[in-house]
Amino acid sequence: MPKQVDHEARRQAIAEALFRIASTKGLEGASLRDVAAGADISLGQLQHYFRTKDEMLLFALQRINGLADQRIRERIEALGGTATPRDILRECLRGMMPLDDKSRTGYLVGVAYFMRAVHDEALRGLAQEGIPQLRAFFADQLSRARADGELAEGRDPEDEAMRLICLVEGLSTYIVLDVHTKRQALRMLDRHLDELFSGRPPG
């Protein structure tokens, strides 16, 4: 009787092999052949699931984002029903930063994919998809804070939501480049949140 292949498990094994290679050699050094060897399958078997490196990177990016979303949800749930908008936003923003080996690898996978997206219109559309939803979620939390009098006066939730996304992207870049330590980056994030949720007008 032919052996049954768990295709989803095979795809996950390929993604894990890519993560391992990315954490040691970087993504540019992760060829399809290297990833196939890391997943203990043939190149032909890998190409049955991913015809190109871009397809493989997209799957890896979606896998990493899914794991990050799960970690963030668990952290928010652990805060309990009394979590404030600031608490929720801080957990989300921390979850987006490369603060451990897994999130660092995830960040580098994202960077590699986004670099390809700059020169490929189809990939660019996929890369852009999550930003409006993330901005809307952040803006909703900031609107709640404004209604409760916690947000600094003169702050627009939509604009501030995008500023938070940009802030974390910048801090993440400088963490992986060793410009800032993780502790320094978190301190800057907290300082910005302190100002944003001060209930005072922007200085």
Describe the structure.
It comes from Streptomyces monticola. Keywords: DNA-binding, Repressor, Transcription, Transcription regulation. It is a single chain. With 203 residues, this protein is mainly α. The chain folds into two domains: 51 residues, Arc Repressor Mutant, subunit A (Orthogonal Bundle); 129 residues, Tetracycline Repressor, domain 2, CATH 1.10.357.10. Helices cover 73% and strands 0% of the residues. It has ten helices and no strands. The longest helix is centred in the first third of the chain and has 27 residues. The radius of gyration is 20 Å and the shape is elongated. The termini are far apart. The mean pLDDT is 86.
The CATH H-level homologous superfamily of the largest domain: Tetracycline Repressor, domain 2
Query: What is the architecture of the largest domain at the second tier of CATH?
Result: Orthogonal Bundle
* Proportion of helical residues: over 70%
CATH class term of the largest domain: Mainly Alpha
Shape: elongated
Instruction: Note the total helix count.
Output: 10
The total beta strand count reads 0
User: What is the percentage of strand-forming residues?
Assistant: under 5%
Radius of gyration: 20 Å
> From the helix content, strand content and strand pairing, which structural class follows?
mainly alpha
Order of helices and strands: HHHHHHHHHH
Annotated CATH topology of the largest domain: Tetracycline Repressor, domain 2
Number of domains: 2
Low-confidence stretches: none
Distance between the termini: 73 Å
Largest sheet: none
The overall average pLDDT, rounded, is: 86
Domain HTH tetR-type: 8-68
Organism: Streptomyces monticola
InterPro entries: BetI_C, Homeodomain-like_sf, HTH_TetR, Tet_transcr_reg_TetR-rel_C_sf
DNA-binding region: 31-50
